[in-house]
Amino acid sequence: MIQFFFEDVENTIQPNYTNWLEDLILTEGKKLGEINYILCDDEYLLKINQDFLQHDYYTDIITFDKVKGKTINADIFVSLQRVIDNAEQIGKSNDEELRRVLAHGLLHLVGYKDKSEAEQTEMRSKEDFYLALFSEKYL
What we know:
By secondary structure, the protein is α/β, with parallel strands linked by helices.
């Protein structure tokens, strides 16, 4: 089950996001467990970053991995402020950048990394694939 929660931000989630994200998990050969997306503002996510990761900087996403075997479980925190700022900087719509970030979190959980340049290229390719799938199937 995929659930969305909102901490001091408006609900910007489209109803078809859930089916799309479930498709991502299944397409990657994994099983859906419990995914909780918590959408929040910068200050909320900064506090999570400080308290749990001992990082003192803003970020767009923090994923707490609770994967068990092939079953994907997680709490994923997303700063909508960062998403909106990033979208503006790269010339994308807020919705498209939000979809990229939502997919990015799941892609980490199914096994993709983005530390090296090669891993970043593969991650971006997967993000683009799932963004295109959303456009084709869910818009």
